[in-house]
Amino acid sequence: MSSAKLVGTFEEQMKLERDTAKGLRATSAKTENSIPKLLFKGIELDTTKHAHMYATLIDMASGATISKVEHYEMRKAVERHVENEKRMLLQAQRIARTLTDRRMKPLLKAILADERRHHKALTMLMKTIAVEEKISQDDWWDFLNKWAVFST
Predict the structure, then answer these.
(1) What is the rounded CA–CA span in Å between residue 56 and residue 63?
(2) Residues 147, 121: contact at Cβ < 8 Å?
(3) pTM across the whole model
């Protein structure tokens, strides 16, 4: 498949993902019960993530790069996010130690697993973008293939 055709295919799929996420968001907004609402929200977030993944594939297929200014701002933002994830993880661990309701534990375990995964992914991203020189396409592909496929 040619690069242009591949980009076009990714763009079509990205639009479908965005439209589906919008519909899920609307369904969730009309739903009162928090259990199906959480399910709809989870699928919406995954679908939104898929749209962003297609946008990334479009950038990668077209050879997009980041500027030095964007690189600097990204690095500073990632550093802040790593600290925030660390705080969220510590707080969730404190909550988990005191939680006694067994029905709530699976949700909290899922939160803890996500927080650990987020912290690790952001830490690895920080290491990937720490160097001032241009990050190679191979560096980005390696990072994406290792970290961008997890569920948020």
Answers:
(1) 10
(2) yes
(3) 0.72
Contact call for residues 112 and 89 (beta carbons, < 8 A)? yes
78 neighbors 23 (Cβ within 8 angstroms) = no
SS3 of the chain: the string is CCHHHHHHHHHHHHHHHHHHHHHHHHHHHHCCCHHHHHHHHHHHHHHHHHHHHHHHHHHHHHCCCCCHHHHHHHHHHHHHHHHHHHHHHHHHHHHHHHCCCCCCHHHHHHHHHHHHHHHHHHHHHHHHHCCCCCCCHHHHHHHHHHHCCCCC
Residue 133 structure tokens:
């020189």
Res 133: pLDDT: 58
Ranges of the chain with pLDDT below 50: 152
pLDDT of residue 152: 47
pLDDT of 150: 57
